[in-house]
Write a structure and sequence with these properties.
mainly alpha, 17 helices, binds protoporphyrin IX containing FE, binds fe (ii) ion
């Protein structure tokens, strides 16, 4: 093992769980590319509506775009947890063989589902359709057979993680993590059963979508962040754990009832206007806490860190989460405003910045940490020969997504103004809004920034594969050097 030169990528340097994590990361990145590609197709259809008609329809492009996103992020999270579990528990992964099997089963299921999405989406909607073609719930459209497979694989994952901590040792981070995984997996079930009433269907569907991204995923990335700050900066465990508890309390305190901001107009009782408006307006508070935490820790350690790209992406996460979820979410969360903005490009603007800022960023950070280790704890700090690549990909991806966010915001503003304010939410107003000059300008510019995003993504992948290949320096040991800071 020691005979392998620093800089060479070798799985033999990694533990079983870490090798598995690399596989999860690889699939995640393939799906990230698919996500962006289908996003570009869907975006193109806003400016060239005839593109793909009857062979690559908007409905299919949009579905592949957002489902690929949810799945690659789940792969990124599962990979991140497998990456850190053994070190955090101080023991080897329990049930590695089963975990590997679950990986292949899940990946096969995902592949089949994508093929069905692409090739079998027209025809009559029967009850069997739910089982084999599409369950019809945005973001989690996978047919029910795949749902059941996903649940089984997630249960295996949960067993692997909980049993490993049980065999080794528990910590504040692992305690929060495992409890959070129970909630995360449990919520998925709320999106699986059939009800004929669309209001009820939406009611439960939001349990998955909202309570995932605004409660359980946020807590999960809180755990990853706590661990990531220890890894990159050598931050002290007691500091990151204390922050984690505060953030979790604030997040659940606001995010759970914040669910009500999706119950304004779907046929649920009126009290949701008050509950949803009030609690969701509090949701940015934990996100501010997360920024303060990350910046405070980085400052205390004078930004001296063992992995520049990973720290850059962690900080991008703290700010992206705050702006995308916190600020962009707050903008339209009060019912008085949401009455005008609901379901317009305003929503899409927030969706892009939030998912990218809060989740894509932190997964990329963990991948950089993983690559550093697989290349023999190589130096990933200042003065890398190919350092321009991570900096350019970082810049282009962030600028690209912020550019799309702004373009969509302008379109959304125009839409709210024309369709809702001027035309009183009429059917003709719906179409009038979407043919205005400024609305269309936003649609063109979204596509331009989308291309910038893709260029950033291509450089990112190139960098992930090649970074530090010719680097011979070893990484400094930060944990010991800064243990007293
Ligand atoms: C990382 C966390 C978050 C993510 C990933 C996220 C993502 C999204 C997405 C994708 C949608 C559109 C859902 C659909 O297709 O209908 C949405 C809707 C919404 N989000 Fe968020 N969000 C987050 C946090 C927040 C926060 C903290 C707030 C409030 C402060 C918020 C407020 C809203 C509101 C009000 C809507 C409904 C928009 C409408 O009526 O059309 N979000 N969110
Ligand atoms: C690469 C360039 C991208 C392009 C051109 C693009 C384009 C699109 C389009 C056209 C839609 C459908 C919007 C609609 O129904 O009106 C969409 C939806 C969405 N995209 Fe993207 N996208 C891109 C990248 C991303 C990235 C990087 C993320 C997050 C990591 C993302 C997250 C989403 C989400 C959450 C939705 C659903 C929004 C909603 O329901 O309001 N997209 N995208
Ligand atoms: Fe929400």
């Amino acid at each position: 093992m020691n005979s392998i030169a620093i800089g060479t990528f070798s799985m033999t340097r990694l533990s079983g769980g870490q090798q598995l994590a690399i596989k999860y990361f690889a699939v995640a990145m393939v799906l990230f590319v698919a996500q962006c590609l289908f996003g570009l197709f869907a975006g193109l259809q806003y400016v060239m509506p005839e593109f793909g008609y009857n062979w690559l329809d908007f409905s299919v492009n949009r579905m592949v775009h957002i489902n690929a996103m949810v799945v690659w992020m789940l792969y990124g999270f599962i990979g991140s947890v497998y990456w850190l579990v053994e070190e955090e528990a101080g023991t080897e992964l329990v049930g590695l063989k089963l975990a590997n099997l679950a990986f292949w089963v899940l990946t096969l299921a995902v592949t089949l589902v994508v093929l069905v999405y692409l090739f079998v989406q027209t025809g009559a909607g029967e009850i069997e359709t739910i089982w084999f073609i599409n369950e019809g719930r945005e973001y989690i459209e996978a047919p029910r057979w795949a749902d059941i497979g996903i649940v089984a694989c997630v249960l295996v994952f949960f067993y692997n993680i909980a049993a490993t901590f049980n065999k080794g040792s528990w910590s504040g981070i692992s305690g929060v993590l495992v409890l959070d995984l129970v909630a995360l997996a449990g919520l998925y079930l709320a999106g699986m059963f059939y009800t004929a009433n669309i209001s009820m269907d939406q009611y439960w569907w939001w349990w998955v979508i909202h309570l995932w991204v605004e409660a359980t995923w946020e807590v999960l990335v809180g755990c990853i962040m706590a661990w990531g700050l220890m890894k990159t900066l050598g931050a002290r465990r007691v500091v990151v754990t204390t922050w984690l508890y505060i953030e979790v309390a604030l997040m659940f305190g606001s995010g759970i009832l914040g669910l009500g901001h999706h119950y304004f107009w779907i046929g649920t009782p009126e009290y949701w206007l008050t509950i949803g408006g009030f609690f969701s307006a509090l949701e940015p508070i934990p996100l501010v806490a997360m920024v303060v935490h990350a910046v405070y820790d980085s400052g205390v350690h004078k930004f001296r860190n063992a992995n520049h790209p990973a720290l850059a992406w962690l900080i991008a996460h703290a700010f992206g989460n705050f702006f995308g979820a916190g600020v962009w979410g707050f903008m339209h969360t009060l019912p008085q405003i949401n009455l005008y903005t609901h379901g317009t490009q305003w929503t899409s603007s927030h969706g892009h910045l939030a998912f990218f800022g809060a989740y894509a960023t932190i997964i990329i950070a963990v991948i950089y940490l993983a690559i550093q280790k697989a290349r023999g704890d190589v130096h990933m700090g200042a003065g890398l020969a190919t350092g321009w690549r991570w900096k350019w990909s970082f810049t282009l991806l962030n600028v690209g997504v912020v550019g799309m966010t702004m373009a969509l915001l302008i379109s959304g503003y125009e839409q709210s103004f024309v369709e809702r304010a001027l035309e009183g939410s009429s059917w003709s107003g719906y179409f009038a809004a979407q043919s205005t000059h400024w609305y269309m300008q936003g649609m063109y510019w979204r596509e331009v920034w989308g291309v910038v995003t893709i260029v950033g993504l291509i450089i990112l992948l190139w960098d992930l594969v090649t970074i530090c290949a010719d680097e011979k320096r070893a990484s400094p040991v930060l944990n010991k050097a800064t243990a007293t800071a």
